Amino acid sequence: MATIGDVARAAGVSRSTASYALSGKRSISADVRRRVEEAVRDLGYTPNAGARALATSQTMVIGLLAQFLEDEFAPAMLQYIQGVANTARELGYDILLVTEVDGTRGLRRVTDSRMVDGVVLLNVAEHDDRLPILRAASQPGALVGLPADCTGVDVFDLDFEEAGRLMVDDLHRLGHRELALVSQPEHVIERGGAYVWRLQNAAAEAARVRGITLHAIFASAHQPDVGRELHDLLDAHPGVTGLLINNEAAAAALPTVLHARGLSVPGDLSVIGRYSDEFARTFSLPYSSIESAPDRLGRMAVRQLVRRIEGEVGPDEPHVVRFVSPELVDRRSTGAPRR
Amino acid sequence: MATIGDVARAAGVSRSTASYALSGKRSISADVRRRVEEAVRDLGYTPNAGARALATSQTMVIGLLAQFLEDEFAPAMLQYIQGVANTARELGYDILLVTEVDGTRGLRRVTDSRMVDGVVLLNVAEHDDRLPILRAASQPGALVGLPADCTGVDVFDLDFEEAGRLMVDDLHRLGHRELALVSQPEHVIERGGAYVWRLQNAAAEAARVRGITLHAIFASAHQPDVGRELHDLLDAHPGVTGLLINNEAAAAALPTVLHARGLSVPGDLSVIGRYSDEFARTFSLPYSSIESAPDRLGRMAVRQLVRRIEGEVGPDEPHVVRFVSPELVDRRSTGAPRR
DNA sequence: CCGGAATGTCGAACCGGTTCGCAATCTCAA
DNA sequence: TTGAGATTGCGAACCGGTTCGACATTCCGG
Predict the structure, then answer these.
(1) Is the C-beta of residue B256 closer than 7 Å to nucleic acid chain C?
(2) What is the CA A3 to C1' D8 distance in angstroms?
(3) Which of A289, B29, B194, B224 has the greatest number of C-beta atoms within 10 Å?
(4) Start and end of every HTH lacI-type domain (chains A, B) (predicted)?
(5) From the list A47, A51, A99, which residue is nearest B86 (CB)?
(6) Does strand C come within 7 Å of the CB of A23?
(7) pLDDT per residue over A181-231, tens digit each?
(8) d(Cα A162, Cα A175) in Å, to the nearest integer?
(9) CA–CA gap between residue B307 and residue B294 (Å, rounded)
(10) Hey, is the C-beta of A85 within 8 angstroms of any chain B C-beta?
(11) Do domains A4-47 and A160-292 have the same CATH topology?
């Protein structure tokens, strides 16, 4: 493998000159530049990433911390990963994917050893173990998901409160008076998935204000449990005319359940979900939904992270907490409540 | 950030001694070892990955090349990624995830710049552009998917021929005489997804030998197209009593389609798919299926790759082409053909 | 009591880049 | 003609590890 020394020799110049010719950080005569570039081509030279990282303390790699937990729905995570990966590449960065169950260990490893210039944390919990480690690290970090304490990090998340209100208001406007909300598994909440509460509380408050009934349940993240739980819910509350689904697995299982019960949408039941359009297409879910915009969130997180890495915004400049406004994608699954 | 020089100074020894004390590559007195370890703890020392990579020419990183193509079903890919990532971590390696659409560019970048010690290629096509680049690289590579030319790489794949035979034989044994096979989109085949042909040809041959009819179609990888195509298929061949599904999107869409047509499984139609158990659970697919074992394939690929990286098998030792035998997971979706 | 082996430590070189300071040459206006 | 300033190239140091060869001690058998 050719080194910059080989290039320099082939071009008849010193190593430093070759380096400057390639980086353009100092002026170089046209002739020398040509000879260096030629040598690069002839030798097939590519800089050694490790050496460059050592010299510049920049790796051009971003750490992506994603946990595939038993009680979460993996395909939903994939879209965040894609958003992050694509944006990173556009900006010239590669992605180090860390999927260890023990996220703290993984985070510590990649930051302490300086394998990455910054990190994106997915699926951030309210009191996330990884945050203290991230704050102690010398690299900047961007989060997808809202923790209790946002100091020292840039945060991006869907506005789940607004999402909860939107769902309730929409069905209230159509005349519904008894709704059910299907949330994530209780485990997710215990672990600190605050977004579940945020949506649920806002929905409950909106229901209270409107004077309508809202039954909330926690459902599993897997079949066949979640299917059974949906059945139980509909058995327990026969008066429910509208379903709010804040649980990807439940959304994916719903068509089968409704079919088994012979219920049509929106004739017998109105349904609004909370997932991405991509997700809806993948699972052919025919329900109107609040767009959760994973690609957009991933993109925003990386953009901001790179701005910090490249010093466009200093480490002391105030950190960002930005919420994406939920948008309702209409798939005609809501209507007037059945009589 | 502490360097090994800081550790050495704190322990009152030279840098080389500190290094040997930590690596254990030379004998060190108990006293010195203790002092060095203490200094490491006190200073919170972690070796700099770039410096180590430069010195040892080992990065402890594996490149994972995964393309998310428009005409493939992303959630199916995720399981390979998980298998690879988990196994890599167990063996002490991190994962550099390269998702560029132009896989050749990404592969060249990570190998030429020596960011990785080896690479795993997912979703390998029959004549895969990435293979010439991989062969020219100085790092070893492991493939998931069977190319036409396997020289210089280790290859792992499901035995799709056997899978095709298994599907046909199973339904033949139950008395079926007219079957339909739903394959991947034609694009996938044109691009060289040979596994589609391998299964299809073997199934066709088995059908010929048994004297039964097999209709084969290519279906899309997305809703709602794939749903429509399944309807068309069933309309066009009313005599079909068994369905073979070698297309994840079609499998995911099938429950809805069958439901719409009022068909029950296996009463009206027997169904066998080809996907992983994990996939079946995620999409709650109630069909018997050939296990495609993505986690196992990912694991095998990484294991072998690491063996090459660490020199346990030399670069000249013969390369492996290993097929995983398909196993039928019975979910009671097959039975005698309807009258 | 001596010679050779085993043990423990150090200095220096090296991996392959980048960057700083200096010097030589060139340009152009005074 | 001269000197200030710009242009261009070079040497050396540095980033933070690893490893080789040399050297000093200690241990052992004869």
Answers:
(1) no
(2) 23
(3) A289
(4) 2-56
(5) A99
(6) yes
(7) 999 988 877 777 788 999 999 999 999 999 999 999 999 988 788 999 999
(8) 20
(9) 20
(10) yes
(11) no
The H-assigned helical ranges of A91-181 are: 103-112, 130-136, 160-173
Rounded to two decimals, the pTM is 0.93
> CA-CA distance, A152 to A162, in Å (whole number)?
25
Write down the architecture of domain A4-47 according to CATH: Orthogonal Bundle (1.10)
Contact B119, B139 (CB under 8 A): yes
Verify whether the Cβ–Cβ distance A283 to B283 is below 8 Å. yes
Instruction: Compute CA B8 distance to the chain's CA centroid, rounded to the nearest angstrom.
Output: 45
Among all protein residues, pick the one whose CA is nearest to the C1' atom of D18: B55
Using the beta-carbon criterion (under 8 Å), do B99 and A115 form an inter-chain contact?
no
A96 in helix, strand or coil? strand
Residue with tokens 């390369």: B319
Q: Judge whether B323 is closer than 8 Å to chain A, CB to CB.
A: no
Q: Are A147 and A155 in contact (CB under 8 A)?
A: yes
Residues B207-261: tens digit of each pLDDT: 999 999 999 999 998 878 899 999 999 999 999 999 999 999 999 889 889 988 9
A152 CB-to-strand C distance under 7 Å = no
Fold of A61-158+294-324: Rossmann fold (3.40.50)
Burial class (CB in 10 A: 0-12, 13-18, 19+), A305: buried
**Helix locations, A216-329, DSSP H:** 225-236, 248-261, 277-282, 294-309
CB contact under 8 A, B78 and A75: yes
Q: Which nucleotide is at minimal CA–C1' distance from A52?
A: C17
Domain A160-292 has CATH 3.40.50.970: no
Q: Which of A46, A59, A99 sits opposite B50 (nearest CB)?
A: A59
Looking at residue A200, the DSSP 8-state letter turns out to be H
Q: Is B139 exposed, middle or buried (0-12, 13-18, 19+ CB in 10 A)?
A: buried
**Residues B74-130 pLDDT 10s:** 888 999 999 999 999 999 999 999 999 999 999 999 999 999 999 999 999 999 999
Q: What residue spans define the domains of chain A?
A: 4-47, 61-158+294-324, 160-292
